[in-house]
């Protein structure tokens, strides 16, 4: 038995994407830069990936760059914009709960003379729009904020913050890491007037190793990888056509089933919340109004890793935080102000279209058993 509940780390590739990858590797295997028919077939696959993403984001397809990951997209957005606008202000505003690919990119700029301001969540666990308005000033050249937090599922107040900042600071560049929201929840980059947006394939049933970056018309970026000038010079290197083919199919699947998948995540989330409500000293860290595809909980007295491996022994896979942190104590939960004992025992449970209510019931039983066993052993 395998119950995979770590879908914020990565998802199982959907069958449609697998088939598309195989076809691209075995039939349409040309190099998209080649001038002959095989090259054009491959180029058409990339075009279709851009068209499909553009349909979801409400933008022109030619504004999308295919990258190797959202990590790369975030780096290209932040470092590429800084390099392209050397005479703009020297302040970057971001949040204290971003993914490491944003945090470490801005830290890199901090070593090169930039001033970084982190917006924190308030004690109620939510971000308040006014805090972004207070953090941005005339010297701010970039705001980078995520769409949905990957550890506890908070939906950041971008819908209010972006139009307000746009009005006050028309020259401010606005970047959104949309990895945990893209193709799951509605978002229109044109209506929002976003400048830059990053997304990843493997969180939405596409293979690992492919991401995209949207860059609004008229916004300049300098590349961070140099070479043959693929992707309009923004991302040199032969494109992974087979991964792009898989991404197209995964995006289609998510787009066609968006509402149904959301309802499904809500159902699983509600069941787990319900079960946890009746459990002894197990707390929910995710806000009530968070994204439904994940739930962060703490099993007081049982360190995350111990419970993670206990669940694993039962064939249930969850995470102790963000996959990249590899078990290190979560800086993000710290930023949210959770007490130490909650951070030490936190688990992230994240759902896919394939999880069932039975999965949740089995997880709940295992949590109760694991908590009782380890608390008894340690007297916690
Ligand atoms: N941003 C967020 C919010 C994420 O959750 C992740 C992955 O966990 C990333 C960026 C990085 O994505 P990738 O694995 O495609 O580099």
Task: List the bound ligands.
Answer: pyridoxal-5'-phosphate
Average of pLDDT: 96
N-end to C-end Cα span: 30 Å
Q: According to CATH, what is the topology of the largest domain? A: Aspartate Aminotransferase, domain 2
| CATH class descriptor of the largest domain | Alpha Beta
Specify the biggest β-sheet. Answer: 7 strands, mixed
* SSE ordering: EHHEHEHEHEHEHEEHHEEHEHHEH
Roughly how many Å is the radius of gyration? Answer: 21 Å
Find the count of extended strands (DSSP E, 2+ residues). 12
* Uncertain segments: none
How much helical structure, as a percent, in the residues? 40-55%
Write out the strand line-up for the largest beta sheet, numbering strands in chain order. Answer: 2-8-7-6-5-3-4
Number of discrete domains: 2
From the spread of the alpha carbons, the general shape counts as globular
Polypeptide structure, described:
The protein has 380 residues and is of the alpha/beta class. The chain folds into 2 domains: 15-256, Aspartate Aminotransferase, domain 2 (3-Layer(aba) Sandwich); 257-378, Aspartate Aminotransferase, domain 1 (Alpha-Beta Complex), CATH 3.90.1150.10. It contains 13 helices and 12 strands. It has a 7-stranded mixed beta sheet with strand order 2-8-7-6-5-3-4, with helices on both faces. A 3-stranded antiparallel beta sheet has the order 9-10-12. Strand 5, helix 6 (158-168) and strand 6 (173-177) form a beta-alpha-beta unit. Helix 1 runs antiparallel to helix 8 and helix 2 packs parallel to helix 8. The radius of gyration is 21 Å and the shape is globular. It starts with a strand and ends with a helix. The protein binds pyridoxal-5'-phosphate (PLP). Pyridoxal-5'-phosphate is lined by residues 69-71, 99, 101, 146, 150, 177, 179-180, 200, 211, 322-323. Pyridoxal-5'-phosphate (PLP) binds next to helix 3.
């Amino acid at each position: 038995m395998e119950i995979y509940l770590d879908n914020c780390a990565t998802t199982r590739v959907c069958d449609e994407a697998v088939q598309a990858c195989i076809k691209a590797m075995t039939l349409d295997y040309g190099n998209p830069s080649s001038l002959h028919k095989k090259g054009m077939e491959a180029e058409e696959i990339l075009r279709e990936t851009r068209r499909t993403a553009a349909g979801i984001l409400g933008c022109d397809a030619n504004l999308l760059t295919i990258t190797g990951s959202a990590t790369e997209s975030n780096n290209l957005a932040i470092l590429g914009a800084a390099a392209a606008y050397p005479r703009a202000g020297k302040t970057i505003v971001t949040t204290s709960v971003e993914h490491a690919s944003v945090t470490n990119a801005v830290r890199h700029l901090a070593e090169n003379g930039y001033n970084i301001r982190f917006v924190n969540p308030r004690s109620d666990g939510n971000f308040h729009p006014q805090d972004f308005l207070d953090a941005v000033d005339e010297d701010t050249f970039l705001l980078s904020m995520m769409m949905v937090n990957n550890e506890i599922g908070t939906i950041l107040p971008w819908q209010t913050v972006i139009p307000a900042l746009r009005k006050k600071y028309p020259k401010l560049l606005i970047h959104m890491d949309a990895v945990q929201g893209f193709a799951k929840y509605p978002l229109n980059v044109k209506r929002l007037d976003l400048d830059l947006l990053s997304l990843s394939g493997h969180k939405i049933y596409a293979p690992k190793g492919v991401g995209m970056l949207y860059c609004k018309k008229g916004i300049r970026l300098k590349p961070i990888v140099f070479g043959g000038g693929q992707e309009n010079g923004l991302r040199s290197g032969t494109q992974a056509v087979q991964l792009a083919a898989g991404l197209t199919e995964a995006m289609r699947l998510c787009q066609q089933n968006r509402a149904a998948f959301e309802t499904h995540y809500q159902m699983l989330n509600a069941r787990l919340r319900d079960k946890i409500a009746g459990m002894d000293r197990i707390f929910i860290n995710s806000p009530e109004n968070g994204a439904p595809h994940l739930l962060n909980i703490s099993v007081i007295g049982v360190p995350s890793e111990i419970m993670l491996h206990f669940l694993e022994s039962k064939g249930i896979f969850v995470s102790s935080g963000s996959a990249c942190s590899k078990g290190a104590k979560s800086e993000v939960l710290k930023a949210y102000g959770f007490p130490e004992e909650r951070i030490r025992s936190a688990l992230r449970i994240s759902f896919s279209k394939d999880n069932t209510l039975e999965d949740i019931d089995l997880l709940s039983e295992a949590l109760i058993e694991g908590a009782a066993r380890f608390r008894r052993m340690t007297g916690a």
